[in-house]
Amino acid sequence: MRILHILNHTRRLNGNVHAAVDLACAQVRLGHQVYMASGGGDFDHLLRERGITTLLVDHERKFSKLARSLIRLNGHIRKFDVDIVHAHMMTSAVLAFPICKLKGIPLVTTVHNEFEKSATLMGLGTRVIAVSDVVGRSMRRRGVAASKLKVVLNGTIGSSRMEGRSGEPKALKSPSVLFVGGLHPRKGLPDLFEAFDLVHEEIPGAHLYIVGNGPHRDQYTKLVASLKCAPAVTFAGSIGDPYPYMLAADIFVLPSHADPAPLVLSEAREAGCAIVATAVDGIPQLLEHGEAGILVPPRDPSALAKMLIHLLKSPEQITAWKEKSQLRIDYLTIDRVARETMDVYRSAIPSGKMGV
Could you tell me which residue ranges the Glycosyltransferase subfamily 4-like N-terminal domain spans (predicted)? Predict the structure, then answer.
């Protein structure tokens, strides 16, 4: 099958880029011809190494540029005679829709960020993929017909992005609590800082590591500096591969307020982390509804602190939850994601028009 993925860019900034890159590489392994149209970025070299043709399509939201991008995208689709177009972001879906409609090519969209109002536009797809059950229910409430909606739960294990990574744990101060993700309000970091201040009072030797970057970094470093726990908090910044941190951490924590299906939980489970996360959006599904990780209420620093203190005072419980993180972990492979996505494609392509 000839597959064209389209997304705003291929930079390492957010999870939907990682998901699209992982999927494209896995589809090549299944024997398909894959193209990636975007504004370019960090992952282009990896994509080309895996045999994926990278195509430049600017997604800047200015009418003149989008008009040129529409013409360019149309040329790529015609030149490569693609069977399916898969859009991963709202601008991508809007660009691809008129071309696919005119040419009779199925458009598949994936809803990564359901919390954005613009996610409704992903309903333009012939088929719409939701990255978790919660996202699927939300899109149905927005008017997307159940007949064209399919849930394909995120998974990262076996990702091409992870090939050649270090299996050596990072040297961390113990006991350690780790957060990995973007420094954005929806990730709930102020809750974590307030909770860790309580943890630090009870367990002065505990240390918190924050891996990631984002527009609120300065705000968060100032917030932490005002707390008693400040000397025990490390902002590690953006790390190309946080896996060594996950291998070393005593507890991995994700205090999100909104998170459709965070890839980082798949990665943390692969690393064998004991996980504490908030019971919002797709997080419970990724943690087997509490069997593979501990769920706590969102926006409740005291409840989070209580659970972290409980675990840090009970090393045997940390060990037990590390073992539980491996429950049904094979379901979180990128190969499973790729196979289920190919099934969605086949359901969208009229019989007799499939290239491979």
Answer: 19-155
